[in-house]
Write a structure and sequence with these properties.
The two termini are 19 Å apart. The chain is 44% helix and 13% strand. It has a five-stranded parallel sheet, sandwiched between helices. It is α/β, with parallel strands linked by helices and 126 residues long. Helix 2 links the parallel strand 2 and strand 3.
């Protein structure tokens, strides 16, 4: 069951904020990072009930699951940033740390994500 988990959603744009809203409505604590995002994205995150954290390092240290919902052009840079933050975060045994949505990420980008994340626990590109 997913209820009662701390789940990170990146990024809180039109789709990400809706994913966050649904996860929150299911009883989860949903976190995100809006630093560097537009005012519109920050507002969407707030309206969806997502908690804004100061940076990816903090997000990686508290999230049980990180869901990335971004356009394919943003996926590789985000995957690199998340991988770096996760590598620094305390390990949580048995926790999936990065989930890449194949509907939003081009095939070549999923392959790059897999290559850049060998140190991530539970890395899946599915």
């Amino acid at each position: 069951p997913m209820a009662g988990r701390r789940i990170a959603v990146l990024s809180p744009g039109e789709m990400g904020s809706q994913v966050g809203r649904l996860l929150r409505e299911a009883g989860n604590d949903v976190v995100t990072v809006t630093a560097g995002r537009s005012e519109r994205s920050r507002r969407r995150a707030t309206e969806a009930g997502m908690r804004d954290l100061p940076d990816l390092d903090e997000l990686a240290s508290v999230a049980e699951l990180i869901i990335c919902v971004v356009p394919s052009l943003s996926a590789e840079p985000l995957a690199r940033s998340v991988a770096a933050a996760v590598a620094k975060a305390p390990m949580q045994t048995g926790v999936a740390r990065l989930k890449v949505d194949p509907e939003q990420v081009a095939r070549h980008t999923r392959e790059l994500t897999a290559r850049h994340g060998p140190g991530l626990t539970g890395l899946r590109a599915s």
